[in-house]
Amino acid sequence: MTDVSASTGNTPNLVQRIRRDYSPLVIGMVGLFLLVFVAGAAFTDDFLTWFNVKTIIRDAALVGIMAIGLTFVTLSGNFFLLSMKEIAALSIICFATLMSADWNQWGPVDADPTTWSLFMTFLVAFVATMIIATIAGALQGALIGLGGNPIVVTLGAAGLFFGIGSWWSDNLVISYRRPHGAEWLGTGSFIGDIPNITVAFVIIAVVAELVLRYTTFGRQVYLVGANRAAGRATGHENFGMAIKCCIIASVCAAFVAVAFSGQVSSAHVNYFSSEFGSSGDMTIMVIAIVMVGGNSIMGGYGSTLRTSLGAIFISSIDNMMVLNGFNSGARVLAVGLMIVFSIIVFALVRRGSRAVE
Amino acid sequence: MERLKNWVTENPDLSFAILLSVSVYTFFAITEPLFFTHRTGFAIMERFAVLGLVGLALTLCIIAGEIDLSIGSNAALAAVVTVRFTDDWGAINSLLFALAISTSIGAIQGYFIAYLRIRAIVLTVGTLMLLRGVALFAAEEKTVMLTDFRIPDFISTKMLGYFSPASLLVIIMFVVVGLFMAFTRYGREIYAIGGARKEALASGISLQRPMIIVFAISGFCAGLGGVIIGLRSGTAQALGLQYLLLAGTVAAFIGGVSILGGKGGVVGAAIGTLTVNFLNTGLVFNVTPSFMVQLYLGILLLVVIMFQTGSRVFEERQRRGQLLDDVDRRRSILSDKIAGLRRPSG
Question: Which CATH class is domain B12-288?
Fold first, then answer.
């Protein structure tokens, strides 16, 4: 197609560019997908209302933030962390334990707590949770960076974190009283009727995208992911990169845990497992979002913008199916089909253009 | 004695696994009076029936240089299908149907992995979710149950002291797969694509056949494990059995597989599984909650991985050091020669 533009002397228009860059198979499959989506949107009642759009984005926010964190790991070529939900479980236990701890009540216990004391309680719990998550991420990142297989390392770490979380909480539900300092994050809204968690999702998505595009760190992530040998030759070892990326992913998971705990004022290790939620466990959901968004799982190609859009896409398909009265089985099946579909499309696009590892 | 010494030096991983397993068993046999009894032996073999299958499946996958994450979902699907159709079709028919489904799922996965040339973890994390959805669909989001409890009774009948029909079947499975891996060309092909994939492909081994065989066996094992669990307990849940992946991976790694592939074997898988079972059963005697078992398994896996990675890094560093030494020595020999050549003239 380049010769067409060269002979006419114009830059190629959008249709030409798409036909040049993608194979007909991919265009057909993505087109089919869009068709199903548009048809579903048109024939589902109450789908295209402002209230429903808000619901979709709010549903996408929690998994979306986690997926944005995981995208850094995936982009740096370390596949994915199978311990996302366990990190979140450990964090939610830590947060709720500290929120309900006796010594962590800044101010009179019997009287109405002031805003200041609530905020201080929240701050202590939040900072401690983030520290725990950072340690968890750094531990995994160090093992991965030394050359351990990311899947096996995080599988073991998942068992470890889940065990620690259950042991800490005695496998019980920890609850704390309202009003508490995390309400503004969980259920509050500062801007009109838009929930704060949605705002946080948007802010995190924008910041992550800016970091990836315009900072040295972002470019290093792409470099290490796309070509590990070139990265090493230019002094960018995977060791430091794996630690940094795993810390980012863990901190995002911990943030989600804090926000979720703020919503329900309690914590239990199983809050992110498939036994609790209806639509599969959180780890696989997050990986699904990263894949469906169109990030290359081998690293070096993709962006957090794609991940955010993937989160909104999966959330809206889920929402559409709920509105049409599907059960959780059909919804999990749909998400599974979407992952496998995106894997196959991606492999077909990349086949031949990339050396087999 | 000399032969034993030779054997140990030839199989360091396997002898380490045997040592670990024996010491875990001895530890619990000494600390728990009830552990060293016939009944506990039977209970351990009963656990071995399921976990051994998963350990075997993961061992084969890791030997081929891949890992099958969908094993828990596959087992859950097989369990749901068997339990659901047993009342209508009879146990044998529904069992065969479930095994056919899980084996063909495995084979299809293997085909796609070879055809698309992607890593197995990428595809199997997708099928993990997909099969979970299928299982939920098949179970209609309920816990399916048997109405006729003669089958669970039959499966855990005690025979030959320590065995039940289930564990005997699994031992036969181990023997068959072990012979297959050791003495057939297909088995050696699996080792070849795991240990040295590029070389194997260059020497004309197709990627597809070993992949399909490995993942079909893995699917079959997962299915059989699911069937045994489902029929033994009489119930099946679509979202259950996800713990199998961690336990099976620990078993495979204790058994001496390397994450790089091409190493390990069926005997190792059996010993690794037995070690995990001793640990599990012994901890149950101590009234340890199940999450603590998970914690110990996680730590065990991390330690094994750390050990393996550390030894690999160490070896690499040593090899690099040796190479540098070699280069230095050659350079010094060369400079000596040059000096020797120059001296007479100068």
Answer: mainly alpha
